[in-house]
Amino acid sequence: MRGAARAGQAEVTRARILRAAERLFAEQGVYAVSNRQVSEAAGQGNNAAVGYHFGTKTDLVRALAREHLGRIEEDRARRVDALDATADIAAWVGCLVRPTTAHLASLGSPTWFARCCAQVMTDPALQDVFAEESLGSPALVRTLEGLNRCLPDLPPEVHVERGAMARQLIVHTCAERERALADHTATARSSWHTTATGLIDAIVGLWTAPVTPSG
């Protein structure tokens, strides 16, 4: 019984640390926040609590990614399974966008995950942590394969460039809406669902835009 109680308390502590870290990372940036600050914000008297429960800051970021991305990928898998051979670019882009916006909507308000992702995306090493966690998902692999089958024939360098643009558009549009909701300021769209619709339209336009010959 004591062992179970200790394990339960450890899970509660881990959850508090994750929430505190996510908020501080979102508001201040990952490297501007110390493990001690995270521990204090989580209400832990032991300043080494982050290291004890998670290890390094990179390990903490990985834990945050796993907590959210697991649920996002479950949604993505359901959406991909619902598609058939007639699915077009918009349908596949929807499988990229809507799992994230639906997840953010499910969290209530305020949320910090989208802004935390935007902060992580500015650091190459931490960006790789998120990439490793997400690109290992079979649902995401199937989505990218389906999207690539529908895309126009683009020069390889343009394909890579537009893929990066699409990722940035998703991350930062979600982060800006999340920030506006937290600050109780006006948003461009009335809901996360309609935000996804606007993103899908924009990304389809990005992928299908003409390519100006270089030179």
TrEMBL record:
Pfam families: TetR_C_30 (PF17939), TetR_N (PF00440). Keywords: DNA-binding, Transcription, Transcription regulation. Residues 17-64 form the HTH tetR-type domain. The keyword Transcription regulation applies. Gene3D superfamilies: Tetracycline Repressor, domain 2. Residues 95-204 form the PsrA tetracyclin repressor-like C-terminal domain. The keyword Transcription applies. PANTHER family: HTH-TYPE TRANSCRIPTIONAL REGULATOR BETI (PTHR30055:SF234), HTH-TYPE TRANSCRIPTIONAL REGULATOR RUTR (PTHR30055). This is Helix-turn-helix domain-containing protein. It comes from Streptomyces catenulae.
